[in-house]
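Risk register update: the risk of archive-format incompatibility is retired. Evidence:
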Amino acid sequence: MTATDNAIYISDKAKQKVISLMTDAGVAGDPTYFLRVSVVGGGCSGLSYKMDFDNETKPMDQVFEDKGVKIVTDLKSFLYLVNTELEFSDGLNGKGFYFNNPNASRSCGCGESFAV
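Archived output:
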C-alpha cells in the first residue's frame, strides 16, 4: 500500500469479506449502502474501531472509495484513520478484520483498540 492522498484503504482480502457480509445482510446490490468505519472511546488502549453498514451520510462525513468499496467516516475519526488500511485475517492467530493504522503508537493484544 502506498498512501498518497490521505485516504482510507482496503486490502483485497478485506474487500472480499466486506462484499460477503453485505451479501449476507441483503445490501450488496444496493448502491446506497457503504462501509462506515469510526473510532470510539474505549478498549484497553483508549480508542476502539467500529465498523457497520450504513446508507445515510452526515454533513461532516469523509467519503472514500478503494477497490470499488465505498468507505465513509466522520471527520473526527478520520483524524485517527488517515492512511489506514482495513485488513482481514483468517489465520490461526485470529480471525477477523483489523486496521493497519500508521497513526497508532501502540495497540492492545487483542488488536481491537489502540492509542495515538
